[in-house]
Amino acid sequence: MRGDARVETNVSLTxxxxxxxxxLKVIKKLQKxxxxxxxxxHQLASQLKRSQQKIRALEQQLKEEMNK
Length: 68
Description:
Blueprint: H1 2-67
């Protein structure tokens, strides 16, 4: 019986290892997706900032032209 218990334990540990490996793969995929989303969000924020700066510059230019 002791041998059977060891075999069952080894099988159980092997199954746990496989489950952990799958979990790690899922975690890595999620981390990759999060990084991509963060990068995209950063790009959009930068684009928004540049657009706002252009708008302010055009508003300033318009004010100057109207004051002439």
